[in-house]
Amino acid sequence: MKMRAITTIPPNGGVKFSQVSPEDGDGIKIRTYQTGICGTDKEIVLGNLKFARPEKGPSLILGHEAVGIVEDPKGNSGFKEGDIVVPMVRRPGKCRMCRLGRQDYCEDGDFVEAGIRGKNGFMRDEFIDDPRFLNKVNDPSILGLAVLTEPLKNVMKIKETFQFLRLRQPWYCDDSTLACKNMYVFGTGTEGLLISIVFRSLGMNVVQVNRHPLGETIMDFFDLNKIEYLDTSSENLDKKVKDAPMDAAIDAVGAMDVLKEITDNIANNGIAIMFGTSGQLPSSNYDVLEKLVDRNIVVAGSVDGAKSHYAEAIRFIETNGKTTGMSRLITGRYGPEDLKIFTEKENQEIKKVIAWS
Ligand SMILES: [Zn+2]
Known about the structure:
Layout: E1 3-9, E2 13-20, E3 28-37, H1 39-46, E4 60-61, E5 65-72, E6 84-87, E7 90-91, H2 96-99, E8 112-114, E9 118-119, E10 126-129, E11 134-137, H3 149-165, E12 182-186, H4 190-200, E13 205-210, H5 216-225, E14 228-231, H6 237-243, E15 246-251, H7 256-265, E16 266-274, H8 286-294, E17 298-301, H9 307-320, E18 330-334, E19 351-355
Parallel strand pairs: 8-9, 12-13, 12-15, 13-14, 15-16, 16-17, 18-19
Antiparallel strand pairs: 1-2, 1-4, 3-5, 3-10, 3-19, 5-6, 6-11, 7-8
Helix pairs in contact: 3-4, 3-9
The structure holds zinc ion (ZN).
């Protein structure tokens, strides 16, 4: 018996609806419920991610954002048939950080990532997985939102990084809250929007920044979550920061000019966290460096997240998923044969998901 899967040939790319053999093994057998598509999948399909590599043979099963349902725990304690689970993307190598369960801080790059490098992903009818890398969802009412756990766990690590960085000085407001602090979030993709609702939940003012007007879906989401939108095609960032200083900034774009916009505009003692990547390298960064040093700016990079961040993401969706209108971020559900979703971008698209069952 073969099953459905979506495959690519890395690092050249392409995307194919395939029939593959089910896996064998001792782990937990999981039926895929939904998989999400993000920029990384599209870049792999375009052949732009040179580190993409198969597990074995020439093709790689795509998919790193997933939610599934346990079909057979095969004697693994802690799981039972029908449990809703979110699998982790990055799997440890042999370095000390990996051995400590912090492969998100891997020291030598010797890890694999499901659907990206060295491990088949979750865009298939079922998969077998190690219980150590599964996160249980307790509230079945968030089954339709749990596919956002993977992108949200990145945000939980960004939040943790931010909370550590702000402890270097009394950064809070006079009343001990963060209500006087402005967080600028660059980018309006899924990650950017999830970052904004999480930082709103810390009580900060959030200004989301992009260079063009946005459609109704996102503007309604901003209204609901009291997020301010700055469209820099019609309003000036320098002018905005005069009224609302840029106390902190998070980049979810990954373009060098965003880093420049941040260093030009961030307040003294500011905190900047870079999450986006695009492969763009600066030709000269002396100017940027001088600004960072003189003004005590801290810039941190953040990638991936630990198992604790998956658990926190699931709790956040369980607690805040409905009030923050998170379902509005899922703008399309498709079947596994609709491969055009990898190459076409729809008007007002945020997150597209593939329904497997
Ligand atoms: Zn490692």
